[in-house]
Amino acid sequence: MMKKLYALLIAAYLPCAALAAPVPQFKDYPVEHIYKGQAHALVLDEFAKTYKTRLRAALEEKVNFAGHYVVTIWGCGTSCLFGGIVDKISGKAYPLPELLLGVFPLKPEYQDQDDRELIYKPTSRLLIMAGAFDSDKPGQDDLVKFYEFKGNRFVLVKQLPYGRKDQSGQ
């Protein structure tokens, strides 16, 4: 009987603990150094062939994400946002983890200096996205999602409700 009670208490506590976990910070996902060398030619896989103009243009830019990647984004109609990252060392491109159907600026507690819907730094593997996500799952509107780029893929670290306030500040 006591084992069942303990199991029930733990099960009730776990969701609360997950909500109380701190918001991921850029400093928690550092990179060793920032690549400053020549960009490799774009590797043309299926994704890169589809978006080669945008991805090749990104290779001309400075590193802006995770030490040796360049984030590039483009609209896909109305307020839709899509994009990818390209590795300046290898030339390999990767799509962003999700398509945003509706985008809005990050709230001050999630951003450091600007009001973009994607936040990233050259010194960190953390990517933050805010908006209404393209998903069949319910509850994918008005979220802030935190991704770590790890092992050549984006891994969801945490997601939080965006919690926009109305004009009265409520």
Topology at a glance:
Blueprint lengths: L1 H19 L25 H5 L1 H8 L9 E7 L5 E7 L5 E3 L4 E4 L14 E2 L6 E8 L9 E8 L2 E9 L9
Antiparallel strand pairs: 1-2, 2-3, 4-6, 5-6, 6-7, 7-8
Task: Give a structural overview.
The protein contains 3 helices and 8 strands. The chain has 170 residues and is of the alpha+beta class. It has one domain (28-161). Strand 5 (118-119) and strand 6 form a beta hairpin. The longest helix has 19 residues, at 2-20. The termini are far apart.
Give the topology string: H per helix, E per strand.
HHHEEEEEEEE
Counted up, domains total: 1
Cα radius of gyration in angstroms: 19 Å
Largest sheet: 5 strands, antiparallel
Q: How many individual β-strands?
A: 8
* Average pLDDT level: 81
Overall geometry comes to globular
Helical segment count: 3
**Are there runs of 5+ residues with pLDDT below 50, and where?**
2-9, 165-170
Quaternary structure classification: single chain
Summarize the structure.
With 170 residues, the protein is α+β, with helices and mostly antiparallel strands. Helix content is 19%, strand content 28%.
